[in-house]
Design brief:
- A hairpin with a 4-residue loop joins strand 3 and strand 4.
- This protein has helices spanning 40-48, 72-82, 91-101; strands spanning 16-22, 28-30, 55-62, 67-70.
- The protein has 3 helices and 4 strands.
- It has 103 residues and is of the alpha+beta class.
């Protein structure tokens, strides 16, 4: 019998970021990402490239250090700081920032 693959990164001593997306009638789910695409900088780039339809929460964890936490507000603040670098901010990001303010 095959076992499910581990979500623990091979290089466990790094911060990993996951996005919870709201798919409407289909419900909420954690977005798939390859292992190399779960770092903070890649996450920010994916947000600004409009790769999430309706993100509602972001969690980060580091298994080597033994911690996990909700980083939704932290990522929202980082996105706000980067606005001047971009001509247009995707609507999905704008809606995410509205949700993050309520936290």
């Amino acid at each position: 019998m095959r076992s499910s693959p581990s979500i623990v990164p091979h290089d466990a001593d790094r911060d990993t970021y996951l996005v919870l997306n709201d798919f409407g009638r289909l419900g909420r789910a954690w977005c798939e990402a390859d292992e190399e695409g779960t770092d903070r900088e890649t996450l920010i780039r994916r947000f600004l490239a409009d790769q999430f339809s309706h993100p509602v929460r972001i969690v980060a964890f580091n298994t080597a250090e033994g911690w996990s936490r909700d980083v939704t507000v932290d990522i929202a603040d980082e996105l706000r700081r980067r606005f001047p670098e971009y001509d247009e901010v995707p609507l999905s990001v704008q809606k995410f920032l509205e949700i993050a303010v309520r936290r």
